[in-house]
Structures are given as C-alpha cells and as structure tokens.
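Objective 1b. Sequence-to-structure analysis of 5'-nucleotidase C-terminal domain-containing protein.
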Amino acid sequence: MWKKGFKIIFTSLLVFQLTISSVFAVEPSQNQQEESLGDYINFQMLSINDFHGNLETKSQLEGKEVGGAAYLATQLNKQQNDFEEQSTKVGRKFHTLRLHAGDTVGASPSLSSLLQDEPTMEAINKMGFKLGVLGNHSFDEGIPEFKRLLYATSVHPNVAKYTEGLNYEYHGIDDDFSYLAANVVDKSSGQPIFDPYIVQDIEGVKVGFIGIVTTETPKSAMPKYTEPYQFLDEAKTINEYSEKLKEKGVKAIVVVAHEGAATIKSVTTGVMADVATKIDDEVDIIFAAHSHEYANGVVDGKLIIQNYNYGQAFGDVRTQLDPMTDDFVKGSIKAERILNTRNVTPDPEIQAIVDEAKQVTEKASKQVIGQAASGDPIGKRKPEDGENELGNLVIDAQRIMMSDADFAITNSGGIREALIPETNEKGEHNLTWKAAYAVQPFNNYIQLIELTGQEIKDGLNQQWQSPDEIIFLQISGFNYSYVDGSKATDCHLVYCVKDVFLEDGKTKMAMSKTYKVAMNEFLADGGDGFTAFANNKVLKNGSTDTDIFVAYIERLAAEGKKVDPKLESRAIIIEPINSKDSIEKDKDKTEDETEIEKETTDKIDKNDSEGKQGQNSNGNSDDNSAIGHKLPKTATNIYNYLMFSALLVAVGVSILVYRNKRV
C-alpha cells in the first residue's frame, strides 16, 4: 500500500518538477539572450520620399523649423553614426542603406528645375542614397529625359542656356545607385522599363527590394508620356516578384512604393495599407510615398512608413537579420520618423551644390516682375477644394494672354505653391520671377482648343467622378452652379453641375455651340481623368503656362496695377428643387404610423443602450479594455500544467492517507 502511494506521489512530483523546469526554460537569462543574439546583423534603412527638388526650402513642422538638403545630409549622418556606435558597442556587424520612395525630382522650385533638377540629383547621389523608385513625376517630361537626368547622357538645352560661360559639370548618379519600377512595363515588349527588384547582400544575408509606382500615374502625368507604358496592379506585381525572390532563396523582402498611406490615431490606412493585406507575408517592410502624409504603423504584420515631403523629415528603420534563417528577426523591426531640423551645421559638400545652383539661377529668379497689393501670400498649393484667389489669377492669365479665347480651364494640381511677395525696405510687395515660377513650374504648353458647351459641362462633372478624390477645376470666362448629390434625386455623384452660364452670370452656355478654350496640354489630353476634354480640336499652340503667368503679372505692372485677385463666386452650390429630403417629407404617413415608428425606435434605442451598458460593465464589448487582460496562450498552458501537477500530488497524498487508515 505504502509503495503504491509513494509511487503516485513520486510520479506527481516528477511531473511537477518537469513543469517548473519548462517555466524557467521559457525565459532564458539576459546573458543567454545576448549570447544567442550575438550573430545577428544590425540593419538600418534611412528613407525619404517626395523631396521634389526642395534643396533649401524652409518650413515649420510641429513647431520646429525644418527643411533643406544640406541639413538633411547632416541629420542622416547623425542617425547613421548613432546606429553604428550602438552596433559596435554590442559587438555586432551592421549595415546602413539610404533609399527614397520616388518623386525626388519633378514639380520643383526654380533653384532645381531651371537646371532640369540636376542639382537635386547630384545632392541625393552625394548623400549616399543607393536605391530609389520612380514616382509619377518621373514622367513629367518623359522617361527618356528622366534617364538623361539619371545617367547624364547629354546636356539639356535649358542647362546649356543657364550655365553658359560657367564651370558647371554634371555626371549623373553612381553606378551602384539602383532605380526600380516593377509594375511599369513597355506595352510593345511587355518588359519592365526599369529593374523590378534588386537583391542586396547585407553582411551575408540576402535582402530583396521590390519597387512600385502608383497606378494613378497616367492620370497625373502628361498622357503622351505615359501612353507607351502599362501600369500593373500593385499587389499582384508584388506577389509575382516575391515568388521570384523566394525562388532565389530570399526571405527578407522590402517593398519601396510610390503610393500612399497615412497613420492617424494609431490606425494606418491608404492604398498601401490595403495592398499590405493582399501580399505575401514574406514582405516585412513597406516604404510608402505620394500622398505626402505621415505613416508609421503595422498592417497585416507589415511595417508601413512614410515621412511627409520636401525633406521635412526622414525615416529611420532599424532591424536585425539572422544569418541562420536568412530573414528578419521576428519582432526586431522598429521605425522612427526624424524631423529634419535646421539646428545643426549644414553639410558643406551638399551646401556647395546648393550654392552653385543659386549662383546659376539667381539672375533669373530675383527679377522683379510686378507688385502685390499686400505682403500676404496669395492663394495656396493645389486649391482643389473649390474657387481660389490664386486659381482665378492663374486661369485669367491664360484666357487673357491667349487671344481669341472664350474661356480657360486648368487643373488645380498644376498650381504648386502660393504666390509669395517679398516686401522691401520701401514697403513694396515685390513679385519675383522665382515666386511666379514656383506657382507654375511645369512648363506645360497652353493650347487653344474647341469644345462644345456639353463637353465643358461633362468635364466639370468629372471633377467629382471619384467619391474619394474631389478635384475642383479653376475656370475663367464663365461660371456654374452645382448641387449636392446626397440631396438631389437626379445626381449620382458627390456633386453634379446644374447650370453653366457665360461671364455675365445670366446667359446660359449653349450646349451644342462650339467655344474656344485655353487649356494646358496635360488637361487637354485628358489628364487627371478629365476625358471629356480629350475629344477636342487644337486651333493653335501658345507659350508655356510658366511664361504666360509671368507675362501676365508683367502686363499688370505695365498697366500700373497691383496683383490682388478676389473670389468671384465662379462656382456656387445651390439647393436642388426636388431634393431627397423634400420627397421623404411628402411621403403619405398617418399620425398613428408616425407615432408607432417613434415608439418602436425609442424601445430599440433603449434596449441598445442598456445592452451596451451591460456589455461594458462586463468588459466584453470594449476592445481596448479586453486587450492586456487576456493571459498569453503559452502562460495559460503553463498554469494549467502546474494546477494539474498539484492535483496529482494531492490525489497521491489522499490515497496514501486513506489506505493508511484502512490498515
């Protein structure tokens, strides 16, 4: 009897001891952890996006003065030095890669764009960036010109004009600077126009990078420059090349995408957030861009980061690579957004590039072309939320300077900056060539085209073709009224045009009549999705939008006028005659039916309220309250084992006592 009892107790104690051992085995000591992590490789990725040639642009972000290429270089070096010191301190190998997620150039200030963005590309190259992707602005002047910029295959006429007699040289990017674009293929050959991916050896571990360009590019770039190419679905393309990388034995995969994402209140959304849920889980990190927002969050186990724009901030992503698994160490990926503050010493090499560009472009940029009525900035960048003072000024210039034009229409996205006067010691609010150029930097040619009244109205309705992206046009020579689609019974868009009038605001535009319209070639080719304007007849070509805008301000100055545009109600929203609200009110309902509905609603509301209160009191309906109170799964199992072992011991002791009593 005693033997059987001791046997039970011995078995129970053995199970208990094994369980205790497993508990301590779950968490190794700090020394054991450090020893096991000793072979890991520290990997840092420093990233920017949407720099847009802002070599010395200064702005305010989070109450701090930020911006400027020379300051960016210093800040990048500072972060890399910190990373290297930390890695050396723990005795690990380390590697830093600098990359950008597109639109480093394009739509740039005159300091860069007058020289075809060569100063910016030189600065980016000198800063040590080694990987980049195409952006939609890579197509602004066509891919051949973009490749000329990258590889310095020839001298552009504009560069030759501004640098004549100067010791100016440009050599393009280094041979080890890779540009990627997996989802842009040549229609004739079906092949990507740039490398779709690259594999880099990071201290013995293969890391794959896939480059992606926004599929919106055909809408935002000149159609004639995007027509030769097909822009493939982002998620499908990433999955295709993820498979190719895995076939090569690559397990650590990064996507560098010129496509948007944003993190607001710890929730990350946007195109790349949606893409993250559709792509291979071997992808661990996504660099986003294009929307000029801030993102730093995890979606479907994948880190997504974006760092505003114009060099105001940059990303510092730090992680570890495991040579044993050839993959990122799980849980090691950390990302931080660093402000590019100007409280550091600017890098002298990069500052020299900026100073040279200023010397070359200074004569043109400082030329005073007119005066403003006040020193306040006029308008804003991309006024796509409706009529804007600057929009009126820009589009009036195109209608007036293009003789014979009845009307003029432009896309708000072509207005890239507010018109900013410079007030001198005399109190004069001077407008310089540089300020005007910043407003209209694309140098798109203005055409005089023929459109019917119906085509104009159809084009106006295309402002609201996408419920997620409202794009208001800037107009001159006519005006129109529109209604809210949620209220009008005959409108299935966000808004719909009601009536279009001539400039007097009384005479309706004839839908069948043909009118002469001044319009930039981007919009006239159907850019930004305005296909209604593409079916036109070109009557003549004019100067560029840049030259026309400058010439118009000079004309006002010659007439003794100061620039002082006003809002003129060129587009007004009105209440629909037969609204959805009025139809609802006209429905036949008896007083009894109305009262029954009210009582039913009150009961439902009361029940819902009581039910929710009950759930909250139990802690079941509030996701935030539930998180943190659930025991980890592994811990729960361990506690179960401990309880089971203790129970066995208790049973053994009970049996022993019971049998002892019987004896």
